[in-house]
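>> received
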Amino acid sequence: MDFAYSPKVQALRERVTAFMDAYVYPAEPVFERQVAEGDRWQPTAIMEQLKAQARAEGLWNLFLPESELGAGLTNLEYAPLAEIMGRSLLGPEPFNCSAPDTGNMEVLVRYASEEQKTRWLEPLLRGEIRSAFAMTEPDVASSDATNMAARAERQGDEWVINGRKWWTSGACDPRCRILIFMGLSNSEGPRHQQHSMILVPVDTPGVKIVRPLPVFGYDDAPHGHAEVLFENVRVPYENVLLGVDAELLQRLGPVHPDVAAQMADRVRAALAVDGRAADIGLATTGVAGPEPQGEHPAGLAYIGLAIGERIEVVELRLEGDRDAVRAGVVERAVQELGARLPR
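>> returned
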């Protein structure tokens, strides 16, 4: 496969890079200040300014693959643009290319009815509202989506939805107007055809945004990752996307290339060594131990970086250090318990 940039992609790379340099990177401290000084869960003025500027320059909805609603790029052509956007935590949103909206919009483009497109897709494409994808659950290993247990049951002309979701990214944002709920609708069907995707407006009775979930102490405001409770939520049967018990890949596939590409350059920036941009082919971490050393355990952390054409292994010994012990405990808790917390 030829991975060389076409003239069209190279021109877009240069334009996106110039926009990031001129507007996005200088806006980072402004964004942080506005979040800290105001209501943390309200959109910031600087982000709205960036969105207006990017749209005016034609750098808008670049993610939609081979669609007249976007830039007409394939995933291969869009990937290097997503990498550039991903160098900043602010990067994707000014271009209307941030998850989970990207994956949700792709699903709506492909599978929504005309009425659903008018109500939800068009304002998403204009950047006027946000969306969320309610999949992950606290009581099952949701990295395997076939494990999801929250239920969607048909009663007449309605779906009745019950269950608890969490890590529902974007649901804390007051601009979030629509959820795509993925739930168990046919427990007797083939393993990958037991679930359905259903559109649930956020203001539907029975939908409760319980709380934002912190990640190592950070709440990621004003975007956030929410725990969401669905209690006897009723929506029209027509709100199902693609049909009942559709293949899971129809939603899980579109967003992953976007997020992976955006994270790639963020990792490069974070793991730059001695001021050099790290070409990350592999990044792994692990904690060995703990082994007693006085009153504190000892830990051993490894980071492997692919830099250029060679592998460098950075070894960091942590002995008798309270912060290091705390870091080891956090790491071990994450590995063994995931995000599960007592309620």
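>> Confidence is low (pLDDT under 50) at residues 273-322, 336-343.
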